[in-house]
Every structure is written in C-alpha cells, then in structure tokens.
Amino acid sequence: MMRFSETPVYDPGDTATRNNPFPLYEALQEHDPVHWSPALRSWIVTRYDDVRLVTSSPTMSSDRLRPFYESLKDERRDILSGVMRYLDLWLVFKSPPEHTRLRRLLNLVFTPGLVAAMEPGIRSTFAHILSGIDPRGEIEFMTDVAVLLPAYVILDMLGVPRDDFPHIKGWSDDLRLFIGTAQGEGDKYRKARDGADRMSAYFREVIAVRRAEPGSDAISRMIAARDDGGALSEDELVACCMLFLFGGHETTTNLLGSAIAALLAHPEQFMRLRAEPGLINTAVEEFLRYDGPSNSIARVVAHDHDLHGKRLRKGERVFAMVNAANRDGRKFERPHDLDLGRLPNRHLTFGQGIHFCLGAPLARLEARVCLLEMVTRFPHMHQGTAPIEWIDALIMRGPSRLPLVLA
Q1: Of 257, 276, 333, 384, which sits most exposed with the smallest number of CB within 10 A?
Q2: Which domains, ranges and CATH numbers included, belong to the chain?
Q3: If we measure between CA atoms, which residue out of 9, 49, 43, 53 comes closest to residue 27?
Q4: Helix (H, G, I), strand (E, B) or coil at 38
Q5: Which of 214, 201, 142 is nearest to 167 (CA)?
Q6: What phi and psi, each to the nearest 5 degrees, are found at residue 305?
Q7: C-alpha to C-alpha distances, 152 to 160, 162, 264, nearest whole angstrom
Q8: Where do the H-state alpha helices sit in 226-346?
Q9: Which residues pair with 382 in a beta bridge?
Q10: Do the Cβ atoms of 12 and 31 come closer than 8 Å?
C-alpha cells in the first residue's frame, strides 16, 4: 500500500481518492483514526471498532438530514424543502421510536419468504438482459447489465412497468447527488429537488391505483400492512416507495460493478470461482467487504464526548467509513487481498443492529445469480480499452463506467 510522508487529509473530491481510497484509509487508521476533514467540515472515522461504535452508540444519531437542513440559512433551505418532506421519513434516517414503528410495518411486507421466491424471476430477468447483448463485442457493463438487473427486479416487486425505468432512473440519479454527497456537482440541490418532486408524484399516482385495485405487489402489501399503531401514512407510503426504488437498485448496481472490477483485477480469483462455483456465497460476502457499495454511513453527534483524544461536539457530522473498516488489519488478516473463500468475514457493509439493511437478502441473491452467471457464461471476459471510472459520491461507491469485453 502507498505510504504517506505527511499527515493524511481526507478530501473525497480528490480524483485519486475517488478512484482508490484505500491507501488513504490505511494511513488514516494508522495516524489519525478520528480525522477532521476540512473539505467536509466533518469527522472521518476509519477503524473497524470505531465504525461499529459510531453506527450503534447512543452518543450518535441517525437523524442527520434534519440538522443539516435546519442549519441552512440561504436559498438551499427552500430548494430542499420538497426533498426533506420525503427523505425525512426514510427508515435509514430515523431513530426509535419512529424507526421501530416503520421497521415493524415493513417487516410484514419484505419477508424472507418473499425474497426466496424471487430467485426464478431474477434468473429469468438476467437471461432477458443478456439476450439483448452482443457477446462478441465490448459492452458497458454498468449500463448494459449492472443497472438493469436490480432495477427490473425492484420494479417488478413494486408492480411498476419496466418501460418507466428510463424516467425513474433519471430522477434517482438526481436524488443521488444529494443523498450520496456528490462533491463535483454544483447544482445538486436543485436537481435533487426536481428528482424528488417527479418521483414522489409518480408513486403517489401508483399508490392511488393500488388503493382502488390492490394486487400482490409490494406497494399493495405496504398499503395493507397494519399493526397496533395503525398503518403507513400517505407520505410514508410515498417515501417508502422512493426508498426501496432508490436503495433497491443503486446499492446492488454498485455491488455488481465493484465485484466485476475486483475479478478483473484478480484473475486468479476469477479462475477460482469458475472452478469452484460453490464458493459463490462466500465470494459475495468478500465482494461486499473488499470494495463494498456502502462507502460510509453518516451520523450526527448526539452529545459531547471524546474519541481517541478528539472532542466530538453535539451537532457535528461524523462519517463512519465502512469500506475503511472492512479493510482494517486489526480485524481482518491480509485485509487488502481478495479471498473469495474468506471465513470468517464479519464485514460492516449492511450495517448492524436496528439499522441492518432491510434489502440485504435481495442484494445478496441478485449478486449470487448475476456474478456466477457472468463468470460461467463468459470465462474469457476482460476489461475493455477505456479505464474504469468511479461515481462521485461519499456515501456510496461503485463504478460509473466499466468497459467489458465478453469474448
């Protein structure tokens, strides 16, 4: 790994850091594990145990959007008001007791049995996507495969026509600029507002149709979900649809792209998976650890406290760098090696405790199907002529472009 001759400084807008943040993460772990980033005006935490602490301790709050929004004193406050109406209801930004109520209702909808029953449909969807690809030429894996599979799966789950995806994808990309904390997009707040306005209006119409004519889709199941506390409100239904559409395809898309990039960079592991397809379960966990789609998790300091001699004050933002923690040599042997048979593998990619990712089983299933099929069908695939490009985001990580030659 690269060694730093001076105190490292974290700036996610730096191109080298975007392309490969791991040398910097290692330097921060060694020299400044609780690092103040001037670029973000936030704390950056990189060690495994500290990331676990930050994401689960009562000293931190997951309600990080509302304090940011309320701190705005300029036109951004008005611009983001429509975005906050829905994002403020997202499960990932809630704390108990609101989080407990929402999670309980959604657990009635997204059951393990529901996900397990989706495997034949996922395989059929993947075959349909491949049928539109010329296996003799170069493809752009992200747009031709990695975006489409999880998007079609979540659209089918929600009962939304696949033909609507181009519009939905555009709204989701605009929303990602704000949620993912993009560093290079100057007009990200207006774009996020427009994306949220259009997506929320779309799902409000779908919900009205489902109320009149319920089906077996997830939206109908969310409408019908009840517990002692009642049902989801109209705004909560819209917010949940937006969350599952956004989270259900963005995260898995990034996982698929990063996994293929990792296999291309480690041909010996590529050959190993081809020879031992039974490794696919541990392989997916290793892809999640090695260069996962959840680069960081944001929290807000709930009350003043010290961590590694640094004073964290109430209201300050903290980014717990999940991808750094997943390569912490204090927790993992050979942390920078890709080992598709790695056991144990207690990565933090899907979170923990009450905030463990509700969509984790589906993301794992889609990754198992897609990656094993790619390795089996295209044993000679290799990177195309152009370099891999990575998305501009602090919260998420994955390729934005991945040229791939299949033959």
Answers
A1: 333
A2: 15-405 (1.10.630.10)
A3: 9
A4: coil
A5: 201
A6: -165, 170
A7: 9, 6, 26
A8: 234-265, 267-275, 280-290, 322-325
A9: 405
A10: no
10-residue mean pLDDT profile of the chain (407 residues): values are: 65 91 96 95 97 93 72 73 80 84 92 91 97 93 97 95 93 81 67 90 97 96 91 94 87 97 98 98 98 94 96 95 98 98 97 88 97 97 96 92 96
Q: Provide the sign of the torsion angle of the four alpha carbons 14, 16, 19, 20, taken in this order.
A: negative
pLDDT for 68 equals 67
How far is C-alpha 212 from the geometric centre of its chain's CA atoms? 33
Task: Using alpha carbons, select from 89, 86, 106, 253 the residue that is nearest to residue 169.
Answer: 253
Q: How many angstroms separate the Cα of 108 from the Cα of each of 88, 103, 114, 286?
A: 22, 9, 10, 30
* Residue 375 CB contacts under 8 Å (≥ 6 apart), including other chains: 263, 270, 273, 274, 277
Place of tokens 């939206």: 219
User: What pLDDT shows up at residue 185?
Assistant: 56
Residue of 390, 403, 401, 6 lying closest to 183 (CA atoms)? 390
* Closest among 167, 166, 160 to 197, alpha carbons compared: 167
What number of other Cβ atoms are within 10 A of residue 244's Cβ? 25
- Residues of the chain by 3-state class (helix, strand, coil), percent to 5: 55, 10, 35
For 74, phi then psi, to 5°, come to -115, -160
Q: Which amino acid is at 163?
A: D
CA angle 385–265–181, rounded 5-degree value: 85
Q: In whole angstroms, give the CA distance from residue 160 to residue 72.
A: 36
Is residue 295 within 8 Å of residue 395, measured between CB atoms? yes
Across the chain, which distance is largest between two alpha carbons, in Å?
A: 65
For residues 241 and 220, the answer to whether their CB atoms sit within 8 Å is: no
Rounded to the nearest 10°, the torsion over CA 144, 195, 108, 213 is -90
* DSSP states of 328-394: -TTTSSSTTS--TT-SS----TT--GGGS-TTHHHHHHHHHHHHHHHHHH-TT-EE-SSPPEE-S-S
Measure CA of the first residue to CA of the last residue in the chain; give whole Å.
33
